[in-house]
Amino acid sequence: MHGAEIVKYALLPIGQLSEEAQESLNKDIKKYRLNNARKCSRESNLRDIFNRLLVTSDEFLSSIRKLPQRPAKPLHKESLQLLKQPEVTRQETRKDFRFGYKWDNIRIRIE
Asked: Could you tell me if 56 and 25 lie in one domain?
């Protein structure tokens, strides 16, 4: 497939496509070239990098990979206060006979 065909059948205009993914992949390629590829010939080097990229983009392998665990940090007092459940009290119940619904007046108090 040529570039003109890609542009013709693209869902988005070329100007709206981001280069961030490609630029972030350059860092990975550099790391793979330095640490995980043979350096005896250019062809074997590129083959090793390409194979590593195929492995890292595989959905199945990514799903079974264990992610490193980060230690949990305690939350600040203000954050814990925001996570508290509000206290809800009902005052009265009225019935609206026009529609057959019950309407509750609810008072919410957050400590």
From this structure: yes
Quick one: tokens of 50? 């390409």
Burial label, 15 (beta-carbon count in 10 A; 0-12, 13-18, 19+): exposed
| Centroid of chain to Cα 24 | 15
pLDDT tens figures, 98-108: 555 555 555 55
3-state DSSP assignment of residue 87: strand
Whether residues 23 and 53 share a domain: the answer is yes
φ, ψ for residue 83 (rounded to 5)?
Answer: -85, -5
What is the domain extent for residue 34? 18-64
Same domain, residue pair 59 and 94: no
Model pTM score: 0.45
- Residue 76 host element (H or E): none
